[in-house]
Amino acid sequence: MKITYVPKGVCSRLMEIDVENDVISHVKVVGGCNGNLQGVSRLLEGMKVEEAISRIEGIRCGAKPTSCPDQIAQALKQAL
User: Kind of pairing, strands 14-20 and 2-5?
Assistant: First the structure.
């Protein structure tokens, strides 16, 4: 399943996540902090969806009430 998500409240503009058998197989984030998001994306690949959500949901970016990792969690939750 391919998830296409437009994040809210963060610098990134688009998130594309591939999930196969409840496991994240690929994450691509357009915009945002490139190096950090590449790292987060690679760490999430191979992880079960529920585990990823539990690890990254609620992370904040500075004074913002959300972050790119939190928005990835929101995208994954919508897909469930």
Answer: antiparallel
Which CATH number covers residue 71?
3.30.390
Question: CB 45: neighbour CB atoms within 10 A?
Answer: 15
On whether the CB atoms of residues 79 and 19 are closer than 8 A, the answer is yes
Domain count, the chain: 1
62-73, pLDDT tens digit by residue?
999 999 999 999
Which residues span the domain enclosing 29?
2-79
DSSP secondary structure, 42-68, as one string: HHHTTSBHHHHHHHHTT---TTSS--H
Output the six-digit token pair for 65. 């009430």
